[in-house]
Design a protein that fits this description.
alpha+beta, 74 residues
Length: 74
């Protein structure tokens, strides 16, 4: 993982998401889907990688929301 990547994971009985290299956001969810949606939104806003982990910590999915460079024609 790189600084700025967003990871959704299970810890201490709750689902959450955090940004690599930043302080924890403090969002906790009873269900997995709301945490994934929050992590996806944040990764999209930051044009970052979103890593979704299973409850056991293994990687379930990984999505890149990086913006492609603009193409200019002269």
């Amino acid at each position: 993982m790189s600084a700025g990547d967003v990871t959704t994971f299970f810890r201490d009985g709750a689902w959450t998401y955090e940004v690599e290299g930043e302080e924890p956001l403090g969002h906790h969810f009873d269900a997995r889907e709301p945490a994934i949606a929050g992590g996806r939104f944040l990764a999209n806003e930051r044009a970052a990688l979103h890593i979704i982990k299973n409850e056991d910590g293994t990687v379930h999915e990984c999505h890149s929301y990086e913006r492609s460079a603009a193409v200019t024609h002269g």
